[in-house]
């Protein structure tokens, strides 16, 4: 059964459209799985997903916000695997629950940033003229601000909180995507295969979404996974400055921030969430590298 | 079928106007194959692109199937006329399969019976059913150009515009594609314009031929007078002489080749003589 399925997927003479599409997906998946770095990244991201999804189960019955002032700043032990923080909260439980916050931020930012950047960039690149000038100058204005400072300003203006942190990060993260998408669109729009669709009578929207966006998509997805690390760090930075998730919510950046005062004597308070940020960022980076190899049309 | 009167195309090259086409007029009758020949930068491809509506013209100068063409064309006007590009490596979407690309024009025009039409179009140009779900990079140059021809013909246009359809291909494949084109032209009763720098290709397919030089139409002649070498303009005679090659080097004044290498270099000489003539640099990119 599995043998015949494998043959069916690997066939270079697919009999139906579905078989052709599934076969290509299978080849892409195989390329990621057989690349050790990409596979490591994929496993880390999957692990993050599982931890975030089943946080209460994985953390056991320990609450991430339950305080135990008698056991504050306790070192790692069998009772508290990663020790406790300055309010006696279990760092293991907080790190596990923090994965949810991190994942929420990363997902929401990705959902906002990629479509905005793609839409602005491809529209500017394809339509040209004053549309291009207007959209790109707006992009320039956003690019001109240092990212964290702009996010800080937005977070300060909108008030602290996860949702506002997401909005602030998204508003500062889209311009590079618009730039990439525009640069690719300008070259693609001049090619003969786009002229061929124009001559077939396709409307501009159809050309943009069906012919240009799919070609820009791969570089945007790759850029997004590479940026995930930066997004996590910006979120952590906002949390560190008190403008992200609010106490007592467990958020990795805020946890590092709270461990800052005791970093020499009680190293585990800041180190454990810091390690979590490091591992997840690394995971997204490795996955991004692997995706670039799979999605690049020049490699196809 | 196609009336071109006083067509002019001007590009801007860094603020400086470049007159790529300067007042070209001709007409193509229904069912006729019209050839345009000229060297690089003569404006021949630009004429074709203007007819297709791919570049802006100075003023209204095109009448197609009895209707004047404006700057913007309707879907029906687009459907009447399709284009085969010179470079089969650049004219196919790199991330779409043959099937995707052939379905697209049918979906745009809301044609029904898509699957059967795609299969038929593939068979028409001599592609096998197993090529249907291939990506362009999985096809050879000749197969790609067949695919481009299938895409142009799937909407059953009445006019087919061919921009050097064989010049990017290997010599043996060129012959195949030319035979395919001449077969399809009869089968589909196409009116077509063929642009080429190769007089032999044009003479093979066309009944009437226009010679262009530096954006101007130098001479118009039928294929019989071309074969007999009965041209009036000196430039046309030069082109004809160049296309025959330099059988005896040194006889033609201004030969670029040393004596004694004439026979084996004839093909190259032809290409060199036609392609490397100094002309004004035109903004049209390539011809």
For this entry, give a set of tags.
heterodimer, A: 300 residues, B: alpha/beta, Rossmann fold, six-stranded mixed sheet, four-stranded antiparallel sheet, 10 strands, disordered C terminus
Q: Biggest interface, which chains? A: A-B, 24 and 33 residues
| Main pleated-sheet profile of chain B | 6 strands, mixed
Classified in CATH, the superfamily of chain B is P-loop containing nucleotide triphosphate hydrolases
Q: What's the total helix number of chain B?
A: 10
Helix content of chain A: over 70%
For the terminal residues of chain B, how far apart are their CA atoms? 24 Å
Poorly predicted ranges of chain B = 249-287
Q: Mind sketching the topology for me?
A:
The complex is a heterodimer of chains A (300) and B (287).
Chain A: H1 2-10, H2 17-33, H3 36-53, H4 55-58, H5 91-127, H6 129-144, H7 147-158, H8 162-189, H9 192-199, H10 204-240, H11 252-259, H12 268-295
Helix pairs in contact in A: 3-5, 3-12, 5-6, 5-8, 5-10, 5-12, 6-8, 7-8, 8-10, 10-11, 10-12, 11-12
Chain B: E1 2-13, E2 16-28, E3 33-38, H1 44-52, E4 62-64, E5 67-68, H2 75-79, E6 81-84, H3 98-108, H4 114-124, H5 141-153, E7 159-163, H6 171-188, E8 191-196, H7 199-205, E9 208-213, E10 216-222, H8 223-228, H9 234-243, H10 262-275
């Amino acid at each position: 059964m599995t043998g015949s399925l494998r043959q069916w997927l690997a066939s270079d003479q697919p009999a139906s459209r579905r078989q052709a599409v599934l076969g290509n997906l299978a080849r892409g998946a195989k390329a990621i799985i057989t690349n050790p770095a990409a596979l490591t990244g994929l496993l880390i991201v999957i692990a993050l997903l599982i931890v975030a999804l089943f946080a209460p189960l994985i953390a056991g019955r320990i609450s991430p916000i339950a305080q135990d002032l008698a056991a504050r700043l306790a070192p790692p032990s069998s009772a508290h695997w990663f020790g406790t923080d300055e309010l006696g909260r279990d760092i293991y439980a907080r790190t596990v629950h923090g994965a949810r916050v991190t994942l929420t931020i990363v997902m929401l930012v990705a959902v906002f940033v990629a479509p905005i950047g793609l839409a602005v960039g491809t529209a500017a690149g394809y339509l040209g003229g004053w549309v291009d000038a207007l959209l790109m100058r707006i992009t320039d204005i956003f690019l001109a601000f240092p990212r964290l400072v702009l996010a800080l300003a937005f977070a300060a203006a909108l008030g602290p909180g996860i949702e506002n942190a997401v909005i602030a990060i998204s508003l500062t993260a889209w311009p590079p995507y618009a730039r990439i998408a525009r640069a690719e669109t300008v070259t693609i729009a001049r090619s003969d295969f786009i002229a061929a669709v124009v001559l077939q009578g396709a409307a501009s929207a159809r050309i943009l979404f069906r012919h240009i966006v799919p070609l820009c998509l791969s570089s945007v997805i790759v850029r997004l996974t590479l940026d995930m690390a930066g997004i996590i760090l910006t979120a952590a930075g906002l949390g560190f400055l008190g403008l992200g998730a609010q106490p007592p919510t467990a958020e990795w950046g805020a946890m590092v921030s709270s461990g800052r005062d005791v970093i020499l004597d009680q190293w585990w308070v800041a180190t454990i969430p810091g390690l979590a940020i490091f591992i997840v960022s690394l995971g997204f980076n490795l996955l991004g590298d692997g995706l670039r190899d799979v999605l690049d049309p020049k490699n196809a | 079928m196609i009336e071109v009167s006083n067509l002019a195309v001007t590009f801007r090259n860094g603020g400086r106007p470049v007159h790529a086409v300067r007042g070209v007029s001709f007409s193509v009758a229904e069912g006729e194959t019209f050839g345009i020949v000229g060297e690089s930068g003569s404006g021949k491809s630009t004429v074709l692109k203007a007819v297709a509506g791919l570049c802006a013209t100075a003023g209204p100068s095109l009448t197609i199937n009895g209707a004047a063409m404006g700057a913007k064309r309707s879907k029906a006007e687009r459907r009447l006329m399709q284009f085969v590009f010179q470079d089969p490596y650049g004219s196919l979407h790199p991330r779409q399969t043959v099937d995707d690309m052939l379905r697209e024009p049918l979906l745009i025009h809301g044609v029904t019976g898509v699957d059967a039409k795609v299969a038929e179009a593939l068979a028409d140009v001599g592609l096998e059913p197993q090529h249907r779900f291939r990506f362009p990079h999985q096809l050879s140059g000749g197969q790609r150009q067949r695919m481009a021809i299938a895409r142009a013909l799937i909407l059953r246009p009445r006019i087919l515009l061919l921009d050097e359809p064989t010049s990017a291909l290997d010599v043996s494949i060129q012959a195949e594609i030319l035979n395919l084109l001449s077969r399809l032209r009869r089968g589909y009763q196409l009116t077509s314009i063929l642009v080429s720098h190769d007089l032999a290709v044009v003479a093979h397919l066309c009944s009437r031929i226009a010679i262009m030089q530096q954006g101007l139409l130098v001479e118009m002649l039928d294929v019989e007078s071309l074969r007999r070498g009965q041209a009036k303009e000196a430039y046309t005679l030069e082109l004809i002489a160049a296309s025959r090659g330099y059988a005896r080097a040194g006889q033609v004044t201004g030969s670029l080749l040393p004596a004694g290498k004439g026979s084996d270099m004839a093909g190259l000489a032809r290409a060199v003589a036609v392609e490397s003539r100094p002309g004004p640099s035109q903004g049209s990119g390539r011809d």
